[in-house]
């Protein structure tokens, strides 16, 4: 191919997308010719992971600029795709539709929060941090406020937030690898980890960028294809997003007809752990305004504080491109997020409507137990029925399902070929891997650049710095995998905590660093450490039986943490001397797009 | 007032407008979630439900692109936009 790689990107990824679709068709033909479900699953996961590893190897580099910020030449739209993959985790892919299915409106605050946060990213932070020219988020804090303590505090907050998040992602990679490759979870976690490291170790940010674009293409095809196919197959509508109003209304009718019968506690004890029944209205408002708004707000501020997202905008060629790129990121995220409620609607209706051939409510227990897919998913511990009232027919309150089943099982329930389930597994793997890569890289880069190079050994040569960065990458990956293998908490819980930790410690120090010239070092340090400690204290307090206040729960503790952070930062800044002239000049320079970046090209 | 101060004043003005629109779609409308859900909205979905599935999300996408364009205009007006060769 002529010309350089960047100019050829549309062609390269066009061919890649065509190749992937070709692969799906080959698998579909192979299925018709008798290829087993298991072999298809293995082929999908192995093929895609091999491609990512290949991209990772091709992107290997020995330059600091390429390793930390992909050489700052990632075009707007492609950076948008990479950010979308970086952003949408295994939880978004596998658990989001399930959350909407079970919890309805109260859960959908997450959709609003995880998208609205990008408005804050675009308007308050991304373009200014890009102008700054930093390699990592603590790099900005350390230079703007000055001093090793400020830099180190930022590394601490970043590590706490990102590490909480990354264990969940490695866990998700392990879950999918263990199902698709049919190996025990404890080993699958490490298979997942090695796949993740293959993408990032040689090429750093450059490798991660180009694999994330590839992963976005896989995950979006894997999410949208089944949604459209199921919708058409059920006759619900050719374009589900605009055509499911009748289905939503029908679910409301059925809810009225069946009623939400409350189960006795003793009955519920017999339901396997992790499964839930339908107890909340699908489209009705079932949460108080504050419960909804506080969750959305926490997620929005958390989005604007998570370093692995912010550092994606350090890779664009210009400040202007960074702004536009945030818009593209959100557009690509929107494609998946707006489809999740549609999938939840289709999945729920296909299961509970007695008029549909797939509906199981109202059937006898013998009939349901004879269905193939019920047996499969019951065995996988994701579906369960029990005749609590002893009348022999299945009622709404007697049917239980795991959250993951909405994405994983709906294609099979709707009667789609197995090739689609293989595709969904590859999509989930892509989503979890891309986020894990971004997070591990964010932590390793912060420690190698900000702690090792900036604080411990400022004279280190590039080769040595990159060696340290790579060793840290492996260490952090293995630490994450080891904790993931212990299976401490569910995927979604720890994801939400990461947002709260990040906003507690970083939101105001970052925003005020640009928007308030008077903010100084003492204030920032107090804000970061005080916010993080306050947030962590609140979480522990509520988890150990504390009552909490103002309706702030363990999912929104960042609201308390960031409020403490803001107050401390303002009070301490005003009580101490204002920043010196050089720092004030630096803030002025950050505020205009033109001119040289604050930090040099290789610093 | 210097050129740079004027530029920053306008930039700040745009920020406030952007955040005001953001506030409406992320927080404001959900103060009336229960009432708004009684009314049928776009494509036949109840209004609040539609906002949580598509409306607010789509509004944010449009808002960011609108913001980026306006900010570019402001930068150009004061001669602070980047040269392509930088």
Structural notes for this entry:
The complex is a heterodimer of chains A (603) and B (86). By secondary structure, chain A is an all-alpha fold. Helix content of chain A is 71%, strand content 1%. Chain A has 2 domains: 1-36; 69-255 and 277-346 and 416-590, Up-down Bundle (Sodium/glucose cotransporter). The longest helix of chain A is centred in the C-terminal third of the chain and has 39 residues, at 418-456. Chain A is globular. Chain B is mostly helical and 86 residues long. Chain B has one domain (8-77). Chain B contains 3 helices and no strands. The two termini of chain B are 28 Å apart. At the A-B interface, α6, α11, α12, α14 and α16 of A face α1 and α3 of B.
Helix content of chain B: 55-70%
Biggest sheet character of chain A: 3 strands, antiparallel
Biggest pleated-sheet summary of chain B: none
CATH fold naming of the largest domain in chain A:
Sodium/glucose cotransporter
Notable characteristics:
heterodimer; A: 603 residues; mainly alpha; Sodium/glucose cotransporter; 2 domains; 3-stranded antiparallel β-sheet; 26 helices; 1% strand; globular; B: 86 residues; 69% helix; elongated
Quick rundown:
The complex is a heterodimer of chains A (603) and B (86). With 603 residues, chain A is mainly alpha-helical.
């Amino acid at each position: 191919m002529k010309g350089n790689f960047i100019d050829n990107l549309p062609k390269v990824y066009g061919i890649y997308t065509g190749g992937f679709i070709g692969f799906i068709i080959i698998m579909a033909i192979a299925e018709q010719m008798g290829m087993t479900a298991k072999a298809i699953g293995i082929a999908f996961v192995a093929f895609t992971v091999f491609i990512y590893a290949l991209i990772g190897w091709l992107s290997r580099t020995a330059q600091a600029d390429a390793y930390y910020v992909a050489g700052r030449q990632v075009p707007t739209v492609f950076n948008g795709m990479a950010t979308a993959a970086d952003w949408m985790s295994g939880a978004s892919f596998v658990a989001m539709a399930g959350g909407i299915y079970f919890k309805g409106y109260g859960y959908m605050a997450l959709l609003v929060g995880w998208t609205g946060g990008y408005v804050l990213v675009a308007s308050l932070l991304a373009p200014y941090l890009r102008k700054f020219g930093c390699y990592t988020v603590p790099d900005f804090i350390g230079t703007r406020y000055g001093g090793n303590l400020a830099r180190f505090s930022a590394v601490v907050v970043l590590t706490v937030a990102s590490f909480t998040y990354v264990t969940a992602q490695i866990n998700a990679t392990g879950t999918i690898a263990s199902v698709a490759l049919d190996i025990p979870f404890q080993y699958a976690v490490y298979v997942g980890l090695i796949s993740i490291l293959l993408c990032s170790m040689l090429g750093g940010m450059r490798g991660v960028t180009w694999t994330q674009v590839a992963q976005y293409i896989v995950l979006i095809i894997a999410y949208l294809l089944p949604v459209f196919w199921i919708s058409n197959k059920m006759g619900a509508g050719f374009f589900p997003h605009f055509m499911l109003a009748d289905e939503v209304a029908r679910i409301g009718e059925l809810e009225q007809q069946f009623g939400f019968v409350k189960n006795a506690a003793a009955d519920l004890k017999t339901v396997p752990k992790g499964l839930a029944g339908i107890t909340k209205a699908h489209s009705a408002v079932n949460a108080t305004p504050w419960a909804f708004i506080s969750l959305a707000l926490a997620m929005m501020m958390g989005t604007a504080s998570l370093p692995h997202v912010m550092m994606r905008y350090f890779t664009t060629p210009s400040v202007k491109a960074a702004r536009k790129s945030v818009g593209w990121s959100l557009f690509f995220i929107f494609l998946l997020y707006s489809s999740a409620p549609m999938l939840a609607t289709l999945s729920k209706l296909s299961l509970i409507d007695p008029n549909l051939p797939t509906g199981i409510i109202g059937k006898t227990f013998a009939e349901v137990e004879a269905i193939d897919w019920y047996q499969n998913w019951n065995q996988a511990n994701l579906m369960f029925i029990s005749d609590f009232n002893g009348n022999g027919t299945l009622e709404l309150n007697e049917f239980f399902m795991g959250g993951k089943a909405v994405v994983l099982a709906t294609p099979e329930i709707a009667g789609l070929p197995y090739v689609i389930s293989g595709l969904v597994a590859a999509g989930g793997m892509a989503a979890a891997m891309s986020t894990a890569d971004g997070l591990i890289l964010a932590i390793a880069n912060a420690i190698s650049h900000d702690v090792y190079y900036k604080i411990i050994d400022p004279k280190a040569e590039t080769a040595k710095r990159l060696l340290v960065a790579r060793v840290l990458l492996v260490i952090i990956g293995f630490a994450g995998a080891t904790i993931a293998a212990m299976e401490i908490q569910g995927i979604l819980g720890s994801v939400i905590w990461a947002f709260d930790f990040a906003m507690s410690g970083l939101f105001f120090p970052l925003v005020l660093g640009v928007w308030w010239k008077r903010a100084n070092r003492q204030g920032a340090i107090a804000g970061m450490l005080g916010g993080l400690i306050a947030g962590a204290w609140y979480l522990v307090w509520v988890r150990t039986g504390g009552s909490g206040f103002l309706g702030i729960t363990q999912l929104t503790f960042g609201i308390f943490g960031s409020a403490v952070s803001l107050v401390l930062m303002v009070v301490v800044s005003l009580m101490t001397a204002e920043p010196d002239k050089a720092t004030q000049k630096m803030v002025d320079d950050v505020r205009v797009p033109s001119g040289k970046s604050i930090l040099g090209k290789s610093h | 007032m210097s050129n740079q101060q004027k530029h920053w004043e306008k930039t700040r003005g745009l920020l406030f407008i952007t955040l005001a629109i953001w506030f409406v779609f992320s927080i404001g409308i959900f103060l009336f979630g229960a009432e708004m859900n009684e009314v049928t909205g776009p494509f036949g979905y109840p209004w609040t439900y539609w906002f949580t599935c598509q409306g607010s999300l789509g509004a944010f996408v449009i808002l960011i692109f609108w913001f980026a364009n306006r900010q570019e205009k402001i930068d150009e007006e004061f001669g602070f936009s980047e040269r392509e060769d930088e």
